[in-house]
Structure formats: C-alpha cells, structure tokens
Amino acid sequence: MTPSVLASLVAMISCTVAANLLLKRGAMAESASSSLLSSLLEPGIIFGFLFFGAAAVLYAWVLRTLPLNIAQSLAAAQFVSVIVASSLILSEPIPLVRWLGIAFIGIGILIVGLSVDGATG
What is the pLDDT of residue 33? Predict the structure, then answer.
C-alpha cells in the first residue's frame, strides 16, 4: 500500500469519525428537536453530511488502488475510532464487553493489514 493510499484511508476514517460526532451533536441540539426540517438545518447535521461526503470521495480514491475486500476490511477501523471518539469527546461509556468487541475488530484489521503487501485492485 502506498503512502498516499494509506493517507487517504486515514483521512477517510477521520472524516467518518468527525461526521458521526457532528451528527450526534446536531441531533442532540435543542433546535433539532422541534421538527425534521429544523433537524436537517442544524449546523452539526449539515457539516456531518459534508464530512460523510468527503469520506465517500476519499474512499472512492482508495478503491482505485485496493481491492474492495481489503479496503472495506481496513475501513472497519472507523467503527473502533467512532466508539473511542464517542467516549473521549461525548463521554459515552464503553463497557468491558464492548472493549472485547473492539479488540476483535482490531485483530481482524491487523490480520488484513498484514496481508496487503502484493494485493492488487
């Protein structure tokens, strides 16, 4: 995997994490509770969608180089990242059993990541 593909993958994951955090904050805003339209106009929701769009563009770039089965497996790091970010930034608790699941996902990402050398799209 080239450094530019790795950087694109990390940027995609970062955009996905930011999008999820922004959507959560936007959904929890007082103005978002009055109606669906006001929810869609909440800045957190708007910026969350923009970050998801940026993540999709970056992911499409990654897919130019990596096979889908590898790219999607590595992109699973976004699940771990969102959970950890929600704990650190939103103070959401992570129970022990969830940490176990995070560890399994991490092991799977590591196994796939170690198999990437020589993979072609």
Answer: 66
78/62 Cα distance (integer angstroms)? 15
CB–CB of 31/46 below 8 Å? no
CB atoms within 10 A of CB 2: 9
**Domains of the chain, residue spans:** 3-114
Find the helix or strand (DSSP H, E) in which 71 lies: helix 68-75
Quickly state the pLDDT bin for 24 (edges 50, 70, 90). very high
| Angle, CA 43 vertex, CA 42 and CA 47 arms, to 5° | 125
| Upper half-sphere CA count for residue 116 (Cβ side, 13 Å) | 23
The amino acid sitting at 43 is P
Q: What's the sign of the alpha-carbon dihedral 64, 69, 72, 74?
A: negative
